[in-house]
Structure formats: C-alpha cells, structure tokens
C-alpha cells in the first residue's frame, strides 16, 4: 500500500499484510522483533505489527464489546458481526430471569423463562458462536458457544422430560444445593473470562463482572433459601442485561443508522512495575 492510499480511521478496511513495511522493519529492528510480538512503528506510529504481520492502525478492530473482541485484531474477511445477536439473546434472557428472581409483579413461577432459554438465549447465542468461527474470532466463538450451552443446560433442569428436577423430588434441599453448585461453576468460568478482558473496554468488563455476581448471589440464595438474597440476585441480573444490551447496541449502531452511537471507554494499561527491556 502506498503512502497516498491512506484511509480514514473510522472506516473499516480490508485485511492485508504490508509486505514492504515488514521487510523494512525486520531489516532495521530485528532485536525488537524478538522481544515483542505486538508493537507499533513507522514515522507516526501508524503501523502495528502483530505476530510478524504488519497492518495500518485503521485496519485493526479495537477491543470492543460490540464485536466480542478483547484486543486489537484485523477486520475479518467475512463482512459480518454475529456478536450482537448473541449479546441481545443473552441480555433478554438475563432480563427475564432477573425480573422473575426479583419477584416483579408477584411472579414466583419462572417457567416461562424456559422458552427464552431454549429458543433465544440458547439457540441464537449458539448460532452466533458458530458464525464467529468463520470470522476468525476465537474469543467470541468460545464465549458464545459456552453461554449458549449454559442456557440450554439451565432450561433442561426445568424441562420435565429430562427428569432432572424429578430426581430430587424427595429431597428438595439437595436439589437447591445442586443447582447452587451449578451456578458456582458458572461463576468461576465467568471470572476466568473477566481475566481475559482487563485490557479491553469498561462496558465489556462490567458486563461479565455483573454476570459473575449474578451467578454468585443466586447460588448463595439457593444455599441459604433466602428470598431477599434471591431478589438481590435478580436486580444484579437486570443490571447485567442492561450492560449486555449496551454492548449489543454498540455492535450494530453507526452514524448512518442511529442518532445514538455508544461511546467506547478503554481501560488503562497497567505495567505492574516492569522495566524497559
């Protein structure tokens, strides 16, 4: 690409490898290449080298909740972003379960959520994850398929044909504890995800921090059979859904189709006291 072919930084560009700049960089910066796999260079730091391939900055996606991408990466060859449908599906599921757990409108029988868990939270999140495979977004592929599996498995607990709840008919306390441990497992998984997002965006991190809190508080409510704790878990779930909607909206809203384009707030980098090499 010649210097006269610059593209506005707000417009996605087609992925390519800048062979000339790679050769120039390898010739003059061999030592630095062996130290870091990701670095910037060029007269105005307009070039970014990732794993031996060099791109212009405007050819990279930033860490962005709307694309479920936790770090800078080239724009996918397939011009599609499946993440928003997965985020919307997860947000609707969290909202409905949060409302039920908070006992809004006096509802104490939450079985209507099974339909959302199967056909929107489960099915659509899983399909979005499968589509992420073709965009090359490993993080989103892993995340969406995992949470799609969560919704299907959670729904199965309350579907009579699976016989899961019926197996505990004579010992409801054991059933509560078993579901509580199930939620603890998802709490651990969710905070593993959080550890992968500490260099991304505020909205991205908050979504999973609150999701982990939702799982944890709901697990405690099952262990203690405390209605107040269950309602608190429902409220946290509602907050989680709002953040999920924000990230999903960010994945589809542009200045061309909306008057409201969500702001992306990047988290600051922390050096942990490492000196320069």
From TrEMBL:
<feature type="transmembrane region" description="Helical">
    <location>
        <begin position="235"/>
        <end position="256"/>
    </location>
</feature>
<feature type="transmembrane region" description="Helical">
    <location>
        <begin position="181"/>
        <end position="198"/>
    </location>
</feature>
<keyword id="KW-1133">Transmembrane helix</keyword>
<keyword id="KW-0472">Membrane</keyword>
<dbReference type="GO" id="GO:0005886">
    <property type="term" value="C:plasma membrane"/>
</dbReference>
<feature type="transmembrane region" description="Helical">
    <location>
        <begin position="204"/>
        <end position="223"/>
    </location>
</feature>
<protein>
    <submittedName>
        <fullName>Uncharacterized protein</fullName>
    </submittedName>
</protein>
<keyword id="KW-0812">Transmembrane</keyword>
<feature type="transmembrane region" description="Helical">
    <location>
        <begin position="151"/>
        <end position="169"/>
    </location>
</feature>
<feature type="transmembrane region" description="Helical">
    <location>
        <begin position="112"/>
        <end position="131"/>
    </location>
</feature>
<feature type="transmembrane region" description="Helical">
    <location>
        <begin position="83"/>
        <end position="100"/>
    </location>
</feature>
<dbReference type="InterPro" id="IPR000791">
    <property type="entry name" value="Gpr1/Fun34/SatP-like"/>
</dbReference>
<comment type="similarity">
    <text>Belongs to the acetate uptake transporter (AceTr) (TC 2.A.96) family.</text>
</comment>
<dbReference type="GO" id="GO:0015123">
    <property type="term" value="F:acetate transmembrane transporter activity"/>
</dbReference>
<dbReference type="InterPro" id="IPR051633">
    <property type="entry name" value="AceTr"/>
</dbReference>
<dbReference type="Pfam" id="PF01184">
    <property type="entry name" value="Gpr1_Fun34_YaaH"/>
</dbReference>
């Amino acid at each position: 690409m010649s210097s006269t072919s610059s593209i506005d930084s707000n417009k996605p560009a087609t992925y390519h490898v800048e062979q000339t700049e790679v050769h120039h960089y390898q010739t003059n910066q061999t030592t630095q290449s062996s130290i870091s796999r990701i670095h910037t260079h060029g007269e105005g730091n307009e070039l970014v080298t990732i794993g031996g391939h060099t791109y212009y900055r405007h050819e990279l996606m930033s860490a962005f909740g709307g694309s479920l991408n936790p770090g800078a990466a080239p724009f996918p060859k397939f011009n599609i972003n499946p993440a928003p449908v997965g985020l919307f599906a997860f947000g609707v599921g969290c909202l409905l379960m949060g409302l039920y757990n908070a006992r809004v409108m006096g509802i104490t029988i939450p079985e209507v959520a099974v339909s959302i868990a199967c056909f929107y939270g489960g099915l659509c999140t899983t399909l979005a994850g499968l589509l992420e495979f073709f965009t090359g977004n490993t993080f989103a592929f892993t995340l969406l398929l995992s949470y799609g599996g969560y919704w299907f498995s959670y729904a199965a607990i309350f579907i009579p044909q699976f016989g899961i709840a019926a197996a505990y008919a004579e010992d409801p306390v054991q059933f509560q504890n078993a579901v509580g441990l199930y939620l603890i497992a998802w709490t651990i998984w969710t905070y593993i995800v959080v550890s992968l997002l500490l260099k991304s965006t505020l909205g991205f991190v908050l979504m999973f921090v609150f999701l982990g809190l939702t799982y944890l508080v709901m697990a405690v409510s099952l262990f203690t059979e405390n209605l107040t704790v269950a309602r608190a878990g429902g409220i946290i779930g509602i907050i989680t859904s709002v953040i999920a909607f924000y990230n999903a909206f960010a994945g589809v809203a542009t200045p061309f189709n909306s008057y409201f384009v969500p702001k992306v707030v990047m988290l600051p980098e922390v050096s942990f006291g490492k000196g320069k090499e």
